[in-house]
Design brief:
single chain; 438 residues; mainly alpha; Arc Repressor Mutant, subunit A; 2 domains; three-stranded antiparallel beta sheet; elongated
Length: 438
């Protein structure tokens, strides 16, 4: 067992175990539930009291209860159910003898007749699981993990995932993200409109480029937790992915980029920056958690936005296009071609230099205190959208991209303030000086 069972042994064991099983039995339904939960949630269990309630056991005398419960179980259930007892609460619980056995039972029981998403959809409908009081907190915790907990290598999992393994299975193996969406919607309602389920729904929708729906669910989550930096990060990510999709669509069209046909993309990028800056403010106000995701995402969007602006026909087709672009971004100058179409954006775009510099300064200073090149985020349902695995490498790359546009301007500003380039430079400004010199 320490080296895991061989797959052939498990398959044969389960095949013989399930022979002649009554598919319509309520006990078989219970086996289904355990198989799904124990496959996806490590060390999960359900209290025996919950099981008795599901089986409608009505014995009131404690000394007869265990015998009555076991008499209701099928031979298959008796062979695979492992009985546990909490030393502190003395609450008895049950799980399947091994996760690999649970996984094989799940596959063979379902076969091609039922999907895992359909089986999981039964969980929110089982009132007993949510309302029975003995072992209720543990049961609800495991069910939340089933829908929300992402895999993390740092937590002993085999891989990193963006959604819970169950949701990823439904999307990848069942090839039906709509089923995953419906499953999370049911869980959202069952868990009293928990904002973290709404957050996951926003993530799932924008993954499949359903941006209007993603916007709705991100706003739903933010209404309940307006100062949660992780949820504000999700709102920003909705617009970031939306911006990326619009840029990709423009690239596929191969048309010259003008102020008119890029207007909506620029507006979307600026909304993303707004929410990432809100995320930063919320993160700085939170003394218990460290969430740097807003700073990283702001720089990512800023670099993509700079790339889009510099590719505009008004700049790209001129020999001095780069200088003209920098003149627009750093001074009061506005090219005639951009004047009216981008009127709502001029002030924000001319401030892009400073906001990106502030974000990069923050990241650079943070990494100078906590120098690491491996992400080590604590796994919670509020974890950031994307974890930067190599932040120092990322910073070098993004500093170079920023410096491509603004390194000369930063040097000029420093000199105008009467500072030498060696005097009181932040770690980030030193990087920019190096970029300019290469």
């Amino acid at each position: 067992m320490s080296e895991e069972f061989s797959q052939d042994y498990i398959q044969d064991f389960v095949k013989h175990l399930l022979q002649d099983i009554d598919q319509k039995s309520i006990v078989t339904r219970l086996i289904h539930y355990f198989a799904l939960l124990n496959t996806y949630v490590q060390n999960s269990f359900i209290s025996q009291s919950h099981c008795e309630a599901l089986l409608a056991l009505t014995v009131h005398l404690e000394r007869f209860r265990q015998h009555a419960f076991e008499s209701l179980l099928s031979d298959q259930a008796k062979m695979v159910f492992l009985h546990l007892r909490d030393e502190k609460t003395h609450i008895e619980s049950i799980r399947i003898i091994h996760p690999l056995v649970a996984k094989e039972i799940l596959q063979q029981l379902l076969g091609g007749k039922q999907t895992q998403s359909r089986l999981a959809m039964n969980f929110p409908c089982e009132n007993v699981l949510f309302e029975h009081r003995f072992g209720r907190e543990e049961c609800l915790s495991f069910l939340r993990q089933l829908f929300l907990r992402r895999s993390r290598i740092s937590k002993g999992d085999e891989y990193d995932s963006f959604f819970s393994p169950l949701i990823e299975h439904v999307c990848d193996n069942e090839k039906n993200p709509n089923e995953a969406i419906e499953l999370l919607k049911e869980a959202f309602e069952r868990f009293h409109q928990d904002p973290f389920f709404a957050q996951q729904l926003a993530r799932l929708h924008y993954t499949y480029e359903k941006f209007e729906e993603a916007k709705h669910w991100a706003e739903t989550a933010a209404k309940q937790r307006p100062n949660d930096s992780y949820i504000l990060d999700t709102k920003g990510q909705v617009y970031r992915k939306w911006f990326q999709a619009k840029c990709k669509a423009m690239e596929n069209e191969s048309k010259p980029k003008t102020a008119q046909n890029t207007m909506h993309a620029v507006e979307t990028a600026l909304k993303a920056l707004d929410y990432f800056q809100e995320c930063e403010r919320a993160a700085n106000a939170d003394m218990e958690n460290v969430n740097s995701s807003g700073f990283f995402a702001e720089v990512e969007v800023g670099c993509s936005l700079l790339k889009l602006i510099s590719s505009l026909q008004v700049f790209a087709n001129r020999t001095n296009g780069h200088a003209e672009c920098m003149k627009y971004l750093l001074t009061d100058y506005i090219p005639e071609e951009l004047d009216r179409a981008w009127e709502p954006f001029h002030g924000r775009l001319k401030n892009l230099h400073k906001t990106m510099q502030d974000a990069l300064d923050w990241i650079s200073e943070d990494l100078s205190y906590f120098q690491t090149d491996i992400g080590d985020e604590e796994e919670t349902s509020e974890s950031p959208e994307e974890i930067i695995s190599h932040p120092l490498t990322w910073l070098v790359k993004k500093s170079a991209q920023y410096g491509k546009y603004f390194s000369e301007a930063d040097s000029v500003v420093l000199l105008q303030k009467g500072q030498t380039l060696e005097n009181k430079l932040t770690p980030f400004k030193k990087r920019i000086i190096l970029v300019e010199g290469t």
